[in-house]
TrEMBL record:
It is found in: Cytoplasmic vesicle, Secretory vesicle, Acrosome. InterPro entries: MORN, MORN3. The lineage of its organism: Eukaryota, Metazoa, Chordata, Craniata, Vertebrata. The keyword Repeat applies. This is MORN repeat-containing protein 3. Assembles a suppression complex (suppresome) by tethering SIRT1 and MDM2 to regulate composite modifications of p53/TP53. Confers both deacetylation-mediated functional inactivation, by SIRT1, and ubiquitination-dependent degradation, by MDM2, of p53/TP53, promoting a proliferative and cell survival behaviors. May play a role in the regulation of spermatogenesis. The gene is Morn3.
């Protein structure tokens, strides 16, 4: 008489079937009830490895690395332009725990762009921001705003170099009025110069110098 082996009483049979059905290692395409789609690698029924996620609601797409169901590693996030019907890249760089983390480039509306470091989905560390009006900030960031030491260059080439806090000029700094050939060096607080000294600086080369030079003390 043949010997029949039954599953252990401590483990229901459907547990064994579920383990066999789990996606692991190979590339699979899975469609969600809401229409989202993922094609890529899996580990223990979680997105893990290389994969592409498409969100049906807004047509966004992520292509890159995954770790235990979350974007983690290097990848690109793009959105679908409702007018041109073409994908526009929004972010390319590093991710951690589903948020931007590490070095990456973000493209904003109105042709603005940020290149630099991220932490927890916010601009933090060193970075360079190009604004729509032609100005550019390069320096340290903290919680999505300039914080620390940095330089802001305006469209007319005038620039500020010094301290920043909460996105505003704060602490010791220098403002170069290259259009007038002057330099202000002093202390700032919340974007307002509190005290300092104004001197002529490159007055001869300035395109629009003041009528009278600043007398020397």
């Amino acid at each position: 008489m043949p010997i029949v082996k039954y599953p252990r009483a401590t483990e229901p049979l459907w547990h064994e079937w579920d383990r066999k059905a789990q996606k692991c290692g190979l590339r699979h395409t899975v469609y969600s009830v809401n229409g989202d789609q993922y094609t890529g690698e899996w580990l223990g029924n979680l997105k893990h490895g290389k994969g592409i996620q498409v969100w049906k609601r807004d047509g966004a797409i992520y292509s890159g690395d995954w770790k235990f169901g979350k974007r983690d590693g290097y990848g690109s996030y793009s959105i679908l332009d409702p007018v041109t019907k073409e994908y526009k890249k929004v972010y390319t760089g590093w991710w951690k725990n589903n948020k931007k983390c590490g070095y990456g480039v973000t493209f904003y509306p109105s042709a603005e762009r940020y290149e630099g470091e991220w932490s927890g989905g916010l601009r933090s560390g060193w970075g360079r921001m190009y604004y729509w009006d032609g100005s550019m900030y390069e320096g340290q960031w903290l919680e999505d705003r300039p914080g620390g030491q940095g330089m802001l260059r305006l469209p007319n080439e005038n620039r500020y170099e010094g301290g920043w806090k909460d996105g505003k000029k704060h602490g010791p700094g220098k403002f170069f009025y290259l259009d007038k050939g002057q330099l202000f060096e002093g202390i700032w607080a919340a974007d307002i110069p509190k005290c300092g000294i104004l001197i002529d600086f490159g007055r001869v080369e300035a395109p629009a110098p003041t009528q009278y030079p600043i007398p020397k003390v």
